[in-house]
Amino acid sequence: MDVEHVVGLPHPRLRPFVTRYSGYRMRTEPGVHRGLPSRSLTLVVTLDGTVDLSEGRFATLCGGLHDEAVIITHDGFQHGVQCDLTPLGARAFFGLPAGELAGTTVDLGLLAAPAVEVRERLQTATTWLDRFSQLDLVLGRLVRPVRQQVEVAWAWQRLSEGLPVGEIAAEVGWSRQHLSARFATEYGLTPKVMGRVMRFERANRMLRGERRPTLTEVAAACGYTDQAHFNRDWRALCGATPTEWMAAELPFVQGTEGA
Prior knowledge:
The protein is 42% helix and 22% strand. With 259 residues, the chain is of the alpha+beta class. The strands form three sheets. The protein has a six-stranded antiparallel beta sheet. A hairpin with a 2-residue loop joins strand 5 and strand 6. It is globular and about 50 Å long. It starts with a strand and ends in a 10-residue tail after the last helix.
């Protein structure tokens, strides 16, 4: 296995909309990779080849929030840049709520005119730092004023802190049903489902870290009631148990935390 993976931060002006850039170049055996649920939308620009999904082959793409694994097939060579977008980034760059992209993957060209330009810029650049700078330039031109309902944004923040949905609804002064409906319109997933995704993401990050804890430690730290609950939730969101996933996919390009 030959893996090159570089992580960088976007320009400070873009950080409300993009949390990080991940450059990757890897040669492995042909196979299948699972794109796992998270709190980020995924924007990918390939430098060689395509990203092959059930929906088609993409040289550039944007995938919305989802609550199950996205299956990616590859021929053993993958080369490109992934940008992790916040839900607010969908409004800033594309002028639409993240909910309109939930559970789908679309060609970036259908959302943003510079899709071809950004790929050509990244292919011409000679270093990862230069590629990240080119992304800053192109994405910076796309930013437009954004507005988001305060209560919904607050609910997202509190959910990321691990608060139960009932408590969040009480804080914003809405019924649980009304909060769920407004939240799903903005993000595409209900607060309950998004809470499961965020908990799964925390567990996933622990398993990708330099010091990998035991599964029992991860389950306890992330608030699962027991190991069986952890395994059930992971299988539902990932399509495999934690042990199966680690054996199949670690280390992987999107699995390394670094800078």
